[in-house]
Amino acid sequence: MANQDFLNEINKRRTFAIISHPDAGKTTITEKVLLYGNLLQKAGTVKGRGSGQHAKSDWMEMEKERGISVTTSVMQFPYRDALVNLLDTPGHEDFSEDTYRTLTAVDSCLMVIDAAKGVEDRTRKLMEVTRLRDTPIVTFMNKLDRDIRDPMELLDEVENELNIMCAPITWPIGCGKEFKGVYHLTRDEVILYQTGQGHTIQGVEVIKGIDNPLVEEKIGDGLAEILREELELVQGASNEFDQELFDSGDLTPVFFGTALGNFGVDHMLDGLTAWAPTPQPRKTNERIVESGEEKFSGFVFKIQANMDPKHRDRIAFMRICSGKYTKGMKMRHVRIGKDVAISDAVTFLAGDRSHADEAYPGDIIGLHNHGTIQIGDTFSQGEAFKFTGIPNFAPEMFRRIRLKDPLKQKQLLKGLVQLSEEGAVQVFRPLDSNDLIVGAVGVLQFDVVVARLKSEYKVDAIYESVSVATARWVTGDDAKKLDEFQRKVSTNLALDGGDNLTYIAPTMVNLNLAMERYPDIMFHKTREH
Ligand code: G4P
């Protein structure tokens, strides 16, 4: 039996990430959430907007120039009785593998939608990913201080396009210049919006009960009438919150507000901490691991270099799935079959690295990595299982990479293999040539790789175009057939950074033909680490 203190620690935890389309307000909401978590004194400092905090390394410099955040960081903070872990996901336009893998490390997601725009492309894609694990979703309709689309229509759009039922928890009263606040359906409260309070937390005015005459007095007869009409419609036509449907990812509670005006974010946090799941069981190749198990286990979902220029090491981000981490404890690095003592794991308090003496299921810890840890690695206490579901995606863009100085071939290869272990990019070495082909899922990855090769491995590399349309990892159950396949199509085969056999197709037609011709060979679009 696990002891009660341990279970209490687990039950306090809520680990989530934000999914949204660029510009919907993820960064702004993060700031406000941190304000409530007491991690920021004043909002406006996360992106380092003018604060100069961001000049960390060359490639971070690049992020700054482009106003994007390539890195994933983890922020832990208390909110009411809960302890919240917010995993930041890269915000740029590119499809990013890091984002996808981060979503494997959370128990719920906050979907932020720009209420003037509705459901956008990137949100659609990310929702597809959360569907793979039926992750519960909380929704925040942002930017109510602007003229937004009809709220009913927005809910319809979410329901139809994202195939999830909506249960409005708050309902907006006006928008834009006329934005007066929200009605909280479950609390039966009208909560009034005041402008000019975006940077700090201040008291709000709350009117108890929708039939309270103060409602007319405060928001005016016209808006009060519209509100009552809309509520009648909403209460008749939309779903009520249902914990089971939320847990299974079939229904999302919806909140309205403005992150910039710091209104509604606390309603959303109240809902999220009340309803979002505590650290959930995780699948391994052998069995399901429950978070309340006493033996420690976790998996690595991200590796990141140079978070701090003074520490030129790499940090492996591990999601703890069961047991308690204590400083100095021994863990089994399952893939290499070795026990390692971990004395200096780090946590990520709003961008600061600080030593963690203990951590619990749902928490993320950072391990110093000197090249032995890869994305997808499992750590345990003795058992040799492996957590599943941490994917690599077949790249969609390819370039041949070449050195300006040919003498540095070894460094280049080392750099590329290490960057591919981190998941920053994928590298392929064709079996029949000395080329190095870099594959990426988003175009930005190419720039990051060249910048990092230069700053971390001191090699100057350039790209050339290459006629590769797509790649598939190949496997076969029948060794003889696989062998024959390898001989016949050797010019199309390559090894990736982890020495896995890959089919490199110049065109989609070529790939389809190969798949037809070799039915015993399996062509995989994703590879599990
Ligand atoms: P992202 O991380 O999802 O990309 O979005 P971010 O928070 O950076 O917000 C994108 C833009 O939208 C920012 O404006 C931000 O100030 C604005 N924004 C966020 N929430 C709200 C809101 O509730 N109401 C309004 N009106 N605007 C909001 P920007 O001009 O691009 O940047 P900045 O000059 O404010 O830094």
From TrEMBL:
Keyword set includes Nucleotidyltransferase: no
Keywords: Cytoplasm, GTP-binding, Nucleotide-binding, Protein biosynthesis
Compartment list: Cytoplasm
Cited Pfam families: EF-G_D2, GTP_EFTU, RF3_C
UniProt binding sites for GTP: 20-27, 88-92, 142-145
Boundaries of every Tr-type G domain copy: 11-280
Function: Increases the formation of ribosomal termination complexes and stimulates activities of RF-1 and RF-2. It binds guanine nucleotides and has strong preference for UGA stop codons. It may interact directly with the ribosome. The stimulation of RF-1 and RF-2 is significantly reduced by GTP and GDP, but not by GMP.
Family named by the database record: Belongs to the TRAFAC class translation factor GTPase superfamily. Classic translation factor GTPase family. PrfC subfamily.
Name under which the protein is recorded: Peptide chain release factor 3
Species: Neiella holothuriorum
